[in-house]
Write a structure and sequence with these properties.
Layout lengths: L11 H6 L3 E3 L13 E3 H14 L25 H18 L3 E11 L2 E13 L5 E9 L4
Antiparallel strand pairs: 1-2, 3-4, 4-5
Length: 143
């Protein structure tokens, strides 16, 4: 009986396979009526969004999961708040997403909305060394 050759963990397919897969976030239905799945770098990006949008104690089995960014909702849109947000994001991603290495987290006021901060996260996928970026808006309480 012929066995297929073992997969080379350094091959592109082997590295991408280590990025994982799971249900897509937000949950949605595909053309066949099944829950859609995500894989590879899309799965990592979706997991980052889950971490960033989850409040602590929101998950029953993992009470410390999440970044709890909602706690900043009524904080002023100042440099001090931006530093606290940056620190919270760095800690949450370091703890809950081992498939990435953070390169930088930038938190800046939105030029068009005084109640919003723009967050840009630059990271590198551990398995492929590919650089990625995730951007989001964070509502704050004011200036």
């Amino acid at each position: 009986m012929n066995k297929p050759p073992p997969s080379n963990p350094r091959s592109a397919h082997g590295q991408r396979a280590r990025l994982g897969q799971g249900l897509a976030f937000p949950p949605r239905v595909d053309a066949n009526g099944r829950l859609q799945r995500s894989a590879n770098d899309d799965n990592v990006r979706e997991h980052l969004r889950i971490i960033l949008t989850t409040e602590r104690y929101q998950r029953l089995g993992l009470p410390d999961f999440g970044a709890s960014l909602g706690q900043f909702l009524f904080e002023p849109n100042t440099t001090t708040t931006h530093q606290l947000v940056r620190s919270r994001i760095e800690q949450a991603l370091a703890r809950w997403e081992p498939r990435i290495r953070l390169q930088s987290v930038d938190v800046l006021p939105d030029d068009h909305d005084p109640l919003t901060a723009r967050v840009t996260i630059h990271y590198r996928l551990v398995a492929t060394e590919q650089s990625e970026r995730l951007a989001l808006s964070l509502s704050l309480g004011g200036s």
